[in-house]
Write a structure and sequence with these properties.
51% of the residues lie in helices and 4% in strands. The protein is built from three helices and two strands, in the order H-H-E-E-H. Helix 1 packs antiparallel against helix 2.
Length: 109
């Protein structure tokens, strides 16, 4: 029986949350927002000056926002995949190597 593999459609992402973001992107936003929400009160309490506390909070939130933005919303132009999927393929391609051998097809000798 002949088997064919159907490739994963990596270029489209179904926008099923109000037609704006996908479920995958919503998960990234929830995780990033929860992370920021968990440490911002601690950062805010480091100084007694309000303006300095706000500046520290903004500076500490930028790395999380960048990571969430890049992984969840940016596409790699070369492969047309989102960066989370691209990095997943890149990191796990070593485990997908196998030994391939040529098999004889009926009628060949």
């Amino acid at each position: 029986m002949r088997q064919a593999t159907i490739p994963d459609d990596m270029t489209s992402d179904v926008k099923n949350i109000l037609g704006v973001i996908s479920t995958r992107q919503l998960i990234y936003l929830i995780i990033g927002g929860g992370t920021i929400y968990s440490y911002i009160p601690v950062v805010f309490g480091l100084t007694s000056d309000f303006v300095m506390s706000v500046i520290l909070c903004m500076m500490s939130a930028v790395p999380v926002l960048l990571i969430v933005g890049v992984l969840g919303f940016l596409k790699n132009e070369k492969t047309n995949m989102f960066y989370d999927k691209y990095l997943q393929v890149l990191f796990f391609k070593k485990t997908q190597k196998g030994k391939w051998r040529k098999t004889l097809v009926k009628g060949e000798s």
